[in-house]
Amino acid sequence: MNKIVRINMADLTSSTEPVPAEWIGLAGRALTSTIVAKEVPPTCHALGASNKLVFSPGLLTGTSAANSGRLSAGAKSPLTGGIKECNAGGTAARMLAKLGILALIVEGLPKEDKWYSIHIAKDAITISEETELIGKGNYCLVNHVQARFGKPVGIMSVGPAGEMKMLSANISVVDPDVHIRSLGRGGLGAVMGSKKIKFISIDDAGTPPVMPKDPVKFKAAARIFAKTLLDHPVSGQALPTYGTNVLVNILNEAGGLPTRNFSSGQYAAHDKISGETMHATIVARGGQPSHGCHPGCQIQCSQIYNDKEGKYLTSGFEYETIWGFGANCCIEDLDDIAQADHIMDDIGVDSIETPVMFGVAMEAGILPFGDGKGVVRMLRDDIGKGTPLGRILGGGAGQLGRIYGMTRVPVVKNQGIPAYDPRSVKGIGVTYAMTTMGADHTSGYAIATNILNVGGHVNPLSKEGQIDLARNLQIATAAIDSTGMCLFIAFPALDIPECLSSLIDMINAHYAINLTGDDVTALGKSVLKIEHQFNLDAGLSKEHDRLPEFFSKEALPPHNAIWDFTPEELDTFWNF
Amino acid sequence: MNKIVRINMADLTSSTEPVPAEWIGLAGRALTSTIVAKEVPPTCHALGASNKLVFSPGLLTGTSAANSGRLSAGAKSPLTGGIKECNAGGTAARMLAKLGILALIVEGLPKEDKWYSIHIAKDAITISEETELIGKGNYCLVNHVQARFGKPVGIMSVGPAGEMKMLSANISVVDPDVHIRSLGRGGLGAVMGSKKIKFISIDDAGTPPVMPKDPVKFKAAARIFAKTLLDHPVSGQALPTYGTNVLVNILNEAGGLPTRNFSSGQYAAHDKISGETMHATIVARGGQPSHGCHPGCQIQCSQIYNDKEGKYLTSGFEYETIWGFGANCCIEDLDDIAQADHIMDDIGVDSIETPVMFGVAMEAGILPFGDGKGVVRMLRDDIGKGTPLGRILGGGAGQLGRIYGMTRVPVVKNQGIPAYDPRSVKGIGVTYAMTTMGADHTSGYAIATNILNVGGHVNPLSKEGQIDLARNLQIATAAIDSTGMCLFIAFPALDIPECLSSLIDMINAHYAINLTGDDVTALGKSVLKIEHQFNLDAGLSKEHDRLPEFFSKEALPPHNAIWDFTPEELDTFWNF
Questions:
Q1: Which residues, given as ranges, of chain A have pLDDT below 50?
Q2: For residue B451, what is the DSSP state?
Q3: Shortest CB distance from A43 goes to which of B406, B537, B543?
Q4: Which of A295, B250, B312, B511 has its CA 20 to 30 A from that of B257?
């Protein structure tokens, strides 16, 4: 990867430049955050001409390293008002890497009120007016686009939600079987929509394989690395069998499964939505319990979930989504949740923000708790069509809370809090409060050590050790998010020493450099500090590094836990 | 005024306490801001149990001093997220003063989902469940309440918007003729609605007149003070004749009348909505061109505006409202605007936030520019009834902008920018950016010196001198807002030395103290600093002391002026 491609939507041109010296060694999140921090004015309007949307594959993307195919996207988030990086699998990252594109930077806004698509191939970048697919959902779009090119191209697209610049709009990519995966959080679909780009397609035809500088060393390290993924019980057994949804029963047992808009930590009907039930349902209906979201994925935590007739209903059916509509909205029917998941993928909205928002909407009386059919209808007919109600629902939990005057609104920096209650899993609460991303479990997944006993154990109900835990995990995650690796490699990386060492060996063999573990830690720290400074300059002061008031006032059953970190304690997170 | 009354909605009790030593000498804004800063946690939810709603008359309220009957209300604002003080005329302030109540502090949230009213009389404070008037508009309410008591009581009430906790909801008071005036800005009606209070009624029967400690000195000073109001051309002639709407033609001429959602500084149809046209229309229809909003008002800038049949349509028909729907929404028919004004008073929404929001809504395509009938319909049928569209519209300009992905959204700290374009009247731009209140012209009315040549002249198109101007005006205003005086006394105060000296003489004679001009300045500075610290602690860092990006990017006709203050220049505002 030796070039940076810029697309200027203001004059509909593209340009290619070599990677500047200061960006060498950066990729994925490290690079998107570096570029956003350097080139986007922190106080700019996130949907205005000054924001930039940056895509970057990881350091190892395109190689034969297992699970290295994640694509990062970065921009100023219209949802949080701060910096944002989110990443997903799919095929686009690998194709960008094969084309040698380390970063794709989309700048400016078009002068005319027209929609565009961008096609990136080996010898040409084409920006075309798009009319046929405007207003269409992602499933329709990806099939049309692949048919248009007559082959599997990589795709980054927005659904109707992104076209309407809704704050929950995400960016979709396709997996190797042309199912939808999402760069989900922070409303980056609205940024792409503001630039009037319906989709970007990528064709890597004619490119050579990505070759390490030292193939022998690389191969040896890759083999060790892959083995650690297989050997660890989470990445090798739990995730391939039950997907991420293995967590429903685990979190319910731990009393940390947020239920009925974060009013309890246990859900009576947890069995109906659990990973075990899902697995049995998938098998009974002829679906696929295991499936990879990107080429080279070895963990295979995705799945194909069929409906009662055995027809494809959804894939990438994640714990967060199932928790969000299940426990948090009290919807007991997994098929309703699967249908909601399909529609969210199709219209292009974040499948965490959206169910968190529906939990608040149910408390506001917009629809009853448990109304799965109502959720499906509102997703399709309101959010998908942009009715006034749909505009409200499409703006996320924080916005809905403000519109209906609600006080129990689980957001940090205006982003919905995911599937682990911070009162009874305090490590993840520190991550929610302090991450630069707004409430985001993936930025420092303390569940590993608080609940799964991966990387040791820190008592989830005690404050002791949580800030150090969250800090260390966030530093490590910022580095992992820069490699192109799936975050789930963190499970073996926390328990099996050869995992991290072989990962570093692969990077060193690929680039013929000599990174150490300390270098990787330093990279993670540097990424966090760059992001934090952007947020401060954007007006997200330390008072925004806080959980909503109700977590400190309402005790959560069954442990009657409250959120009891002081502001001063939380602020020590940044002592590094 | 020797007592503080607290209403605790959590247990539906009231209590009375003497004025603590540290609050002696404070009233109006100085007291509401002091109490909010001391007792409300800055990061609390503005609609939660921790916020407090504080009412306070001014230092001279209840006396015979001209124009001294303003009522201040303070709380954490759900609209801006910062501290808020707003004030209005009406009869309530005088009645509170006669009852000896220096501050009324409403705390907590009721346990049950019921609505309440509060009645304050000489010997008793009664908190009652209210059912009859729930869902009713303010006009219906005030007539019912006065009929219920069989006499003119003071009233603070919320309309349906406040009941629904909309962020543009205001608090209404009645003028001496039972017309509606409003504590307009910052969504304090939502705070009152969150506490489930439909109205507070006040009966001052049995109270003695408020007597100065030195009646002779007071009377002499009051006479001088009143004369200065009459002598100044703005307070003595322009405002009584044309009301605040005298400004339409003046601002249009200056190129600072924001038109079509702040895209021009001049409005072709300005004559149709001008103060001169309004005056002629009022006279022709048998209305009242001059009318006072509170007992003892001598400026009489209010008016009674009748419809074509000569029936009462609205009163307190202000320049800001007429500009907002007129130039900014391009509605040429003054009767449509008057009808909109009536409905806004009735449903209880801020008549600045609402038209600024409609300007953005028109640019978003929700209704066409110029559609006065559409505005009236949406006010009545959507905002008034809380449809999803009404919930969107009732949340103010910033919220609508986020929901529809708009970039040209004229707000500071999420509060709509009033009727003077900051690009071509730069002094008011500094006030908008730097005031603790969110965009608010009344907090430092630089129009006086930029446009009206009151208090000297500072060229509105140049940056030179504007920060000093805005700072000095904001300091003076914070002091005036603490006296109970109408802000329009600032016109003579800026030009006629006897105005300010007689004001201070009145305070000294009333309280038998020896304030100097320096003391008054020190009070103003202290109020601003208290408010600023609250905002910083609430997370409104200096990055929030900025105008929206588009003012720096788009030149405003006819002067092609842009907003060109640097952040560093703006931050010098706080150098005192």
A1: none
A2: T
A3: B543
A4: B312
